[in-house]
Amino acid sequence: MRKAQMYWNKKYKENQTLWGCQPKDTLVRYENVIPLNGKVLDLGVGEGKNAIYFASKGFDVEGVDVSNEAIARCRENASLAGVDLETTVADLTEYDIPAGSCSLIILSNVLNFFHDEGIAAIITKVKKGLMEGGMIYIHAFDTNDPSFERRSHLKVDAESNTVFNPKTRNYTHYFTKEELEGFFQGYEIISTSQSLQLDVGHGEPHYHGLVELLVRK
Asked: Which domains does the chain have, with CATH numbers?
């Protein structure tokens, strides 16, 4: 946990905002079909844009992040918005989600930053923690992201969509739409999309290939 925590703390200190301030449009669009009797759990909460939105709508919300800098920023933003939410500093591969406790679990811009085994472990925990009728939202880099081709020499093996940066000692996984949907066989697909978007939120403007998935149990 410490290595990842140091890496992301540095990122947050270097950038005024990493992930923007507005909640994801898909989450806003389908807010009314999310069960009210469970927790909204935002894994990789970052600055809190999605968590704060749901807290403002009266949901019981918890945000989890490996970065204590992110959690501090999330709490500050929540205070400015006049909402209450629970926050936890934790490695997502080690964080326990009580079975059937969540009506919505958000994984926005976070699953990419784990190796294959970590991704599988997190998704297993998420599926266990979701109540019947609950929803899982994922937003992630896909294999159309320009950085995937640029970093192809860093693949962990020839057939993998995971790269390893020896300088930062960090993994980045680039999903395919089919791969992501394959984790949720038997779930109802509410929304799925792929896009290429210009990111102007931090650093020099750059493009990301993105895949988005919202499923219901």
From this structure: 2-216 (3.40.50.150)
